[in-house]
């Protein structure tokens, strides 16, 4: 049975920072895969199902020092990462190290006496015969030195554990803001560490760990002393900070539902936006305002990307999935009605300018057909030393001609596949995709339809990049699926040809 420590206590460690990248936090805290074998993937990484990578790192940091914990949780807001463990043992678990030195037949004579060789080795290592044991290893007996490691208290190991943890957190991009050797996505301003009701003080880099936390409100930072872990959670709650991302997301959804009210529409489904906004606020509040109906001429994806990606605004759609001329915005912190009116008016003005630009780009792009733009792909590099986008487009057409008949495709599908490959990269030259790169392929679909291309051709152009992530949807058309496979195979082949090693999300 596992050892239990009746004096085990909780640990709380807070990293207070400048505002962290919301998209990066969302990736760490949201489920990475809906695959049926995701539990197996997590086990290979040393993680438990339902445990995100930060929690796995936190748990492992204690396990490597032989300190047992009952459970652990990592919470986060834009300006703080909080590691909370329950039932942390007060000291390391004892461990005996065994050092193999000789096979038994070399260590002892036939009458059981130690050989000169064994005695010499023990003398050189400052061990006695009493500190040796004989054990079986792969079917053969060996003499081992049995060495007991010193047991240290948890409080003396916490500085090393937490410093290592800070340095090992898996952020995509880190920055350096002083000469301490600590790298993090944003400058770290404060640390807090409590073991039960005991404050643990030490330094990580040039920043001292104290029993203090910082709350940011209305552009002002206020420092508070913390006496114990319950007092920490109570202080945040009192100041409107929702520390748990799950609770905060639910609060955001409740705010959005109230803003929608009895409006004849529903929220446009955008999980990425919801996850990102969840890590932009600590105390979610909301505002709503209209925008001009003239902008509804734009495709749905243009409207939602203009609102969501550029300004983190939520859109509404009616029962026919058409965008309604109203946006919803999530604010951080309480604001009076007068303040909300000013904020919503400012957002409305910015959104108007963005949509005005998008409408201009849309009309300008439609003046020249995709086919007429194609030749200019020669000036657009695909990969360094791997040719242009025009050459890539030609390779896709060649793949379609060579492999299409082997799938096999009908005569119409073969013709449409070759046409989709021919036009697939042309929207990269449009002003709209230049402004919103995430719309590549999608805008190609709309422009193809405007140019009179067949519906199957346009649909395939729109699906060529799917799936972009493990959570993304798959192509819904046969031609779209084939084009997507051709596109990815061409990319992988080009990478290996250049000596580059492609990576995946797992």
Layout of secondary structure:
Blueprint: E1 9-17, H1 22-29, H2 38-44, H3 53-63, E2 71-77, E3 80-88, E4 96-103, H4 104-107, H5 116-124, E5 132-137, E6 140-148, H6 154-168, E7 188-195, E8 198-199, E9 202-204, E10 207-210, E11 212-217, E12 220-225, H7 229-238, H8 245-260, E13 266-267, H9 271-278, E14 284-290, H10 300-311, E15 313-317, E16 323-332, H11 337-365, H12 370-373, H13 389-403, H14 411-423, H15 431-435, H16 442-450, H17 455-463, H18 478-497
Parallel strand pairs: 7-10
Antiparallel strand pairs: 1-3, 1-7, 2-3, 4-6, 5-6, 7-8, 9-10, 11-12, 13-15, 14-16, 15-16
Mean pLDDT score: 89
Q: Helical region count?
A: 18
What helical percentage do the residues reach?
40-55%
Low-confidence stretches: 32-49
Computed structural class: alpha+beta
Radius of gyration (CA) equals: 31 Å
Shape summary: flat
| Largest beta-sheet details | 7 strands, mixed
- Total strands: the figure is 16
Quote the distance from N terminus to C terminus: 35 Å
Beta content = 15-25%
């Amino acid at each position: 049975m596992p050892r239990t420590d009746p004096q085990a206590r909780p640990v709380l460690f807070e990293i207070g920072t400048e505002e962290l990248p919301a998209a990066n936090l969302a990736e760490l805290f949201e489920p990475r895969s809906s695959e049926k074998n995701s539990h197996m993937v997590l086990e290979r990484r040393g993680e438990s199902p339902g445990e995100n990578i930060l929690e796995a790192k936190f748990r492992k940091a204690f396990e490597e020092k032989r300190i047992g914990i009952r459970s652990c949780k990592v919470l986060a807001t834009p300006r703080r990462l909080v590691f909370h463990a329950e039932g942390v043992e007060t000291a390391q678990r004892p461990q005996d190290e065994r050092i193999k030195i000789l096979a038994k037949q070399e260590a002892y004579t036939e009458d059981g006496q130690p050989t000169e060789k064994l005695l010499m080795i023990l003398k050189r290592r400052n061990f006695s015969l009493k500190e040796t044991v004989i054990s079986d290893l792969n079917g053969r007996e060996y003499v081992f030195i049995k060495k007991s490691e010193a047991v240290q208290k948890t409080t003396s190991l916490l500085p090393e554990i937490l410093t290592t943890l800070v340095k090992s957190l898996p952020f995509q991009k880190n920055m350096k803001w002083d000469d301490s050797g600590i790298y993090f996505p944003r400058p770290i301003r404060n640390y807090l560490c409590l073991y039960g009701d005991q404050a643990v003080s030490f330094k990580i880099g040039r920043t001292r760990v104290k029993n203090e936390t910082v709350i940011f409100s209305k552009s002002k930072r206020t420092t508070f002393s913390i006496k114990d872990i319950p007092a920490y959670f109570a202080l945040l709650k009192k100041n409107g900070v929702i520390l748990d991302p799950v609770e905060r997301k639910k609060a955001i959804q409740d705010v959005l539902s109230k803003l929608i009210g009895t409006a004849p529409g529903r929220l446009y489904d955008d999980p990425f936006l919801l996850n990102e906004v969840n890590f932009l606020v600590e105390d979610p509040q909301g505002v709503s305002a209209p925008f001009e109906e003239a902008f509804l001429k734009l495709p749905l994806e243009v409207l939602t990307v203009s609102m969501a990606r550029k300004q983190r605004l939520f859109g509404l759609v009616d029962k026919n999935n058409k965008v309604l001329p109203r946006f919803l915005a999530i604010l951080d912190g309480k604001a009076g009605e007068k303040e909300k009116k000013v904020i919503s008016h400012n957002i409305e003005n910015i959104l108007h300018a963005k949509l005005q630009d998008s409408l201009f780009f849309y009309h300008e792009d439609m003046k020249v057909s995709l086919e007429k733009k194609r030749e200019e792909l020669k000036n657009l590099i695909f990969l360094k030393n791997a040719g242009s986008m025009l050459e890539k487009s030609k390779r896709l057409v060649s793949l379609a001609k060579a492999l299409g008949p082997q799938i096999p495709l009908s005569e119409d599908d073969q013709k449409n596949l070759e046409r989709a490959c021919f036009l697939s990269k042309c929207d990269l030259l449009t002003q709209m995709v230049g402004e919103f790169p995430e719309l590549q392929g999608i805008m190609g679909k709309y422009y193809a339809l405007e140019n009179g291309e067949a519906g199957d051709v346009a649909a395939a152009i729109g699906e060529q990049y799917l799936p972009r992530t493990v959570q993304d949807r798959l192509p819904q058309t046969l031609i779209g699926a084939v084009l997507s496979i051709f596109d990815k195979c061409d990319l992988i082949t080009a990478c290996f040809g250049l000596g580059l090693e492609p990576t995946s999300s797992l």
